[in-house]
Amino acid sequence: MFSRVARSARNTPSLPRASRALQARQFSSLDLIPDEPAGPSVVTQKIPGPKGLAASKEIDAFQDPRTHVIVPNYEESKGNYIVDADGNVILDVFAQISSIGIGYNVPALLELGKTDEFIKAALNRPALGSFPPVQWAEWLRTGLLTVQPKGLDQLITTLCGSSANETAFKCSFMAYRQRERGSPDAPFTKEEMDSCMDNQSPGAPQLSVLSFKSGFHGRLFGSLSATRSKAIHKVDIPAFDWPSAPFPALKYPLQEHVKENEAEEKRCLEEYEKILIESKSARPVAAVIIEPILSEGGDKHASPAFFRSLRLIAKKHGAFFIVDEVQTGVGATGTFWAHEKWGLQEGEEPDFVTFSKKMQAAGVFHKKETRPNAPYRNYNTWMGDPMRALQARKMIDIIRQHNLVSHTASTGASLASSFKSLFASSAAAGKVSNFRGEGDGTYLAWDLATPAMRDSFVGKMRNHGILIGGCGEQTVRLRPMLTFGEKHAEILVGTAEKVLKEL
């Protein structure tokens, strides 16, 4: 069922000779992980099995285990396959909620872990803001900064996606107030310095961050105030009084509903601009934050023109623009950054791009004019982790060497074709709808008829040796690693067909 893609689509003349040679044949995960399992192997009646359940019960003595899916044995896991406590070998197309870039126990990364450079970076963890390693500039210039989004040459490293977004919020607020004062060098007034200590204005200004309904940006206080995906994340937690705008409820397939979708996007853009205008009198919007695909909220898509309009309208009304690429970044959608597909011109770039997950490191790329005007304004003890910066550098090198972003794009195109055929068959009749993500690499999703059916599908897939994820109310989402390829896709689609028949 899995159709092959023309290899010529991956030929890029500007690539080094070694990379062009790799493109002469289809990439295989075995190129990086020679001992990757050939397929799933299920040895228990259900997953998790008795040992996995016992492991969760042991953890329950001191930590809530109710969100456990499985308890893995990471020492035995390899490539695209995760092994659980019972010895089940499972094809992982959820990848730790989209957090594993190229696989488990990749030999090249294990070799990095054995080097003196890596060991000493891990064991002598510095307070980076005050005591950066002498190699810090080199590590970033040869790693994370080689994939900086267009127009963003500044980098703040952080600990996770939530802290990356909160850092971008703080930078936005500070830059917004600097702009209001007329100069980054304008001194703070005594009233500002005194009032901020009582959480009062003008030192603690009544500014806001605008986010979108169904968006997810993290679980810390600021990022949680911008999160709009599920009530269970937010209930009982005090929140900032920040606005949310509607995100288009598009009809799929997109190409069959062009007029209706254009009208829906126009409606949402008009409401969005209205909120920006109305907020100026009470709680001005200092920043707008958006995911290129609303992931936790149900894998919701919009057109490149919609996102470009969001950016231009934010700029028109003086709001900084944050693109949250925590889940979509690092090649998952067939371009290194998902917002590359929006067609932004020079001068239209985002002000901030946040990242984490597949990068295994976290941080914020931004423009120099949004650097705080004084030290210690965006600061904490760790400010990231040199060990993770080294890991990210090695992964970026592997991604380039094996052309894994193009591989993911072509794999996703063929995988989408195979799923379209499956979902048009009798096995999926009345069960599957709204298949989406074509053109976005392996970032594919679909809805099941009910939330209960979605949960049953995910559970049955796991019992057949496929770890897959859900989001929103009734959506199934794919988040495989960049080394996911044709052989994995054949197993995935074949198992999905079997499970759909069981529903």
Automatic annotation (TrEMBL):
This is 4-aminobutyrate aminotransferase. GO terms for cellular component: mitochondrion. It comes from the Eukaryota. Keywords: Aminotransferase, Pyridoxal phosphate, Transferase. The keyword Transferase applies. Its cofactor is pyridoxal 5'-phosphate. PROSITE patterns: AA_TRANSFER_CLASS_3. One of its GO terms (molecular function) is 4-aminobutyrate:2-oxoglutarate transaminase activity. Its EC number is 2.6.1.19. GO terms for biological process: gamma-aminobutyric acid catabolic process. Belongs to the class-III pyridoxal-phosphate-dependent aminotransferase family. The keyword Transport does not apply. It catalyses: 4-aminobutanoate + 2-oxoglutarate = succinate semialdehyde + L-glutamate.
